[in-house]
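Sanity check. The docking grid for magnesium ion depends on where the pocket ends up, so I'm generating a full predicted complex first rather than guessing from homology. Inputs follow.
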Amino acid sequence: MGGTFDPIHHGHLVAAEEARWQFRLDQVLFIPTGRPWQKPVGVSPAEDRYLMTVIATAPNPAFAVSRMEVDNPGPTYTVDTLRRLRAELPEDTRLLFIGGADVVQQLLTWKEPEQVLALTELIAVTRPEFDLDGLVQQIPGAAGRVHRMEIPALAISGRDVRARVARGAPIGYLVPEDVARYIEKRGLYR
Ligand code: ATP
Ligand code: MG
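Predicted complex below; grid placement will be based on this.
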């Protein structure tokens, strides 16, 4: 599961845990982005986002965090990360990319979707205002490789959490308690 994780919130964690269970995954690997090309300005330092992701996922034995994009200077593309992962994993490993409907839509419209689908299956987590069905029908071979997954924690977003911190609204229960503390300690989003 890739993302800026600025900050990681319960939407991410619920999606990851539901995917682990529905798809019987051995591990969910969280990969915070280095410097995302879609959001070049105003993104918190990679190290802060990496640490918040570690703090939030540490208690779950099936969750792990990768530094592969954080340690990579310059923009990283999801397809390149998937290629690297594929090369590192044993050949018979089933690889599934967990993404919100917004990100899956982007992956399937950007450059060669057939290549992405050859590298990985996709778990598309439903998010408000995104409808993937039309898109999936247009791409040959996508039907069996893109799995829709619904989760209950739909409306939480990093953008909303940041806006809340900026205006002094509470973020308790939207993010893990220790992540909220870390945000306060580092003075993020003020
Ligand atoms: P921002 O508002 O800054 O874009 P975000 O909440 O979308 O933050 P990201 O780090 O951009 O979080 O997203 C990481 C991945 O998690 C993406 O694939 C995104 O679609 C997905 N995601 C984020 N929030 C949710 C949610 N509430 N439900 C389902 N998927 C989510
Ligand atoms: Mg996002």
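Relevant for the grid: The longest strand covers residues 28-32.
Also worth noting: DSSP finds eight helices and six strands in the chain.
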